[in-house]
Each structure stands twice: as structure tokens, then as C-alpha cells.
Amino acid sequence: MIHPDLTMITHHFHIECCENNHHNRDDTIYVFPQTWPNTGGGMAEPGYCYGQAFVQQYTTVIFSKKYGKAQVWFDNQLGYTVSPLTDRFWNDLNMQLMKDKGHARHYAISDYAMF
Length: 115
Hints:
Largest sheet: 4 strands, antiparallel
Oligomer: single chain
Order of helices and strands: HEEEEH
């Protein structure tokens, strides 16, 4: 497993999600291992052929409640950005079972959501 480069990840997050505010003190970072059922790992997308092997990767989730955005990284690759931060996102983060890149839409607000 590749240890995440937290300096690079936070730098990228501030540029992409926090209006280039490198002094944002609202960041929260979680790092945890996840096991994936194919060699695509967290970067797997539907329709692609991956090897049949279990792969363990570090998942890094960085978010800012102030900006209402999060990024999910697999090893040192950006998987996707989540905005707004939905209940599904918080539930999966609490269970440390983030969706892979191909299923990132899981965190989108449903067209039928009640506001």
C-alpha cells in the first residue's frame, strides 16, 4: 500500500475546493485502509476489465464544512469530489467504506430528495 502524501492532497484540496485558501483551519482528514474486490481498487469504473485479486489501498477523505466540499483519494490519486456533503457521504465515512470512483454518484442528492 502506498502511504498518502497528505501535503500534496491538502494543497490540491485548497486549490480545487477552498478558493485557494491555504490558511483554512476547517479541514478534517481521515485516512483508512479499504479492501477492493479487483485490481482497479478505488479507481475502478464500470465497463472496464480489471484483474481478479483483492487489493488494499489507503483511502483519504478530506473535507471542509465551511465550503461544504470533500475529496476522496485512493492512495495518491483523486477519485472524486463530493458537494454538497450528503447523509450518504457521512454514513459511508463513519463506516470507512467509501464508494469507488465508478459509484461516486451514490453521494449525489436524489431528484426525489425531500428538502
